[in-house]
Amino acid sequence: MYWRRLFLAATGTTVLLAGSANLPAGCPSITQSQEKALLRYVRAKYKLSADLPVRLVKEGAVGKTCYERIRFVSTDPARYFNYAVVLLPDHVYFAREVVDSSADPLAEKRKKNQLIQERLLSGNPPSKGQAGAPVTVAVFSDFQCPYCAQAARTIEQTVQGQDRVRLVFRHFPLPFHKWALPAAKAAVCVNAQSPNAFWKLHDYYFQHQSELNAENVAEKSLEFGKALGGLNLPAYKRCVESDSTQGAITKDIELGKSLEVRGTPAILVNGQGIAGAAQLPQAIREITAQTAQKK
Question: pTM of the full predicted structure?
Answer without folding.
Answer: 0.74
